[in-house]
Write a structure and sequence with these properties.
- The protein has a single domain (about 10-380), classed as Rossmann fold (3-Layer(aba) Sandwich), CATH 3.40.50.
- It contains 14 helices and ten strands.
- It has helices at about 10-25, 55-65, 75-95, 110-115, 130-140, 140-145, 165-170, 190-195, 220, 230-245, 285-290, 320-340, 350-360, 370-375, and strands spanning about 30-35, 70-75, 100-105, 155-160, 175, 180, 185, 260-270, 270-280, 300-305.
- β8 (about 260-270) and β9 form a beta hairpin.
- α1 packs across α8, α3 crosses α5 (about 130-140) and α3 (about 75-95) packs across α10.
- The two termini are about 20 Å apart.
- It binds iron/sulfur cluster (SF4).
Length: about 400
């Protein structure tokens, strides 16, 4: 069952945000660059009447070129970079000592939640920017060098499944050398509206490729779109980097699932790695209270704000009927995993364009250049949970 595609009430808002983007894109002398989050390619076609979860990366790339973008890059590439940086950070914290458990930091809703409710735990968050911001920073440095263009002449747009990503993009620290990492964010629904507004017949478009190098991704980058995906991608790389052995099985079923909290122990060489995956912020309280009390011995915890991860983000096609949500989330998730399984490269550290990026530009994960461009800081924004009262009956609901 496709999503409701009319949404007349939203049209005025969509036009407002699109006008801002198209006005900037029409300025002469600009290199117009776009990136798309992993979850867009499994939901965009729903806006054009296709079944839930229809996978259309090639048509999406083609549509973005017809909308006027000069380079179609991919947030999935940034997800691969995130794994290189975050995986190295985790290994360093485990082997050399550092605040554990380490939390992921790619979901701006989760980051803001931590800044307000658990500011004393902010040094537990990975210092990595999100994949969107990493791609943004690389577009105006590495990408600018490759295109021989000044960063000031690049206009960088991100298509996201998320209504929090504009907030993240606007954070003052999300810039490098005076240039904003990402200039504007549009949601999946806004992109669909734009394609329709321009009269592009989406489903008749040919499949086109993303541009190189910042549009080439592994299956591990793809699965960032579902809850548990960051953890699975990190284990695929972390296991091999720590042990120098091949991971026996790439599909890690123990982090896949629909429960609000999933936990597992993984033998990585001599280390018994304890991990947890949290989907939906209402479930985060349970683990964070234990971390705060010093009672949580996990090494790595993934937290995503939305119940099924980014495939269920607030910027995705609207599902007017509650009964369609589970159907859509499961179809999108299955499509993401299928896209990963069909990928020639399924581990971030084996993506040849990632290897090239580090050889030619970044040097090494957590090195000087990476630290300058790809890492960030977090800030206390609230008094912390201890000063708030909470209804315990809202906790522990493990359903989507
Ligand atoms: Fe945004 Fe939801 Fe994804 Fe977090 S999980 S980045 S809030 S879409």
């Amino acid at each position: 069952m496709p999503a409701d595609i009319g949404e007349p009430l939203f049209a005025a808002y969509y036009s407002y945000s699109l006008n801002k983007v198209t006005n900037m894109m029409n300025k002469s002398g600009q290199l117009r660059i776009v990136q798309c989050a992993p979850a867009i390619r499994v939901s965009l076609a729903e806006e054009f009447g296709m079944p839930f979860g229809t996978l259309t990366p090639g048509k999406m790339a083609a549509a973005l070129r017809r909308l006027g973008f000069d380079r179609v890059y991919d947030t999935n590439f940034g997800a691969d970079v995130t794994i290189m940086e975050e995986g190295t950070e985790l290994i360093r914290r485990v082997t050399e000592g550092g605040p554990l458990p380490m939390f992921t930091s790619c979901c701006p809703a989760w980051v803001r939640f931590a800044e307000i409710e658990y500011p004393d735990l902010l040094d537990h968050l990975s210092s990595c920017k999100s994949p969107m911001q990493m791609v943004g920073a690389l577009v105006k440095t590495y990408g600018a060098q490759l295109d021989a263009v000044e960063p000031a002449n690049i206009y960088s747009v991100a298509i996201m499944p998320c209504t929090c990503k504009q907030f993240e993009c606007d954070r003052p620290e999300m810039e490098s050398d005076g240039y904003r990492d990402v200039d504007a964010v549009l949601t999946t629904r806004e992109l669909a509206y734009w394609i329709k507004q321009r009269g592009i017949d989406f489903m008749s478009l040919p499949d086109e490729e993303f541009d190189s190098p910042l549009g080439q991704y592994s299956g591990a980058g793809t699965i960032f779109g579902v809850t548990g995906g960051v953890m699975e991608a990190a284990i695929r790389t972390g296991y091999e980097l720590l042990t120098n052995e091949k991971l026996p099985k790439l599909q890690l079923d123990f982090v896949r699932g629909e429960e609000g909290i999933r936990v597992a122990e993984v033998q990585v060489g001599e280390l018994q790695l304890k991990v947890a995956v949290v989907a939906g912020l209402q479930h985060a309280y349970q683990l964070l209270d234990r971390v705060q009390a010093g009672e949580c011995d996990y090494h790595f915890i993934e937290v995503m704000g939305c119940p099924a991860g980014c495939i269920s983000g607030g910027g995705q096609p609207k599902l007017m009927l509650e009964k369609h949500k589970m159907e859509a989330y499961r179809a999108r998730k299955s499509s993401i995993y299928g896209h990963d399984a069909a990928s020639q490269v399924r581990k971030s550290h084996e993506n040849p364009f990632i290897i090239k990026l580090y050889d030619e530009f970044l040097g090494e994960p957590l090195g000087h250049v990476s630290h300058h461009l790809l890492h960030t800081t977090f800030h206390k924004r609230g008094p912390g949970r201890q000063s708030l009262s909470r209804d315990a009956s809202t906790e522990g609901n493990n359903d989507y």
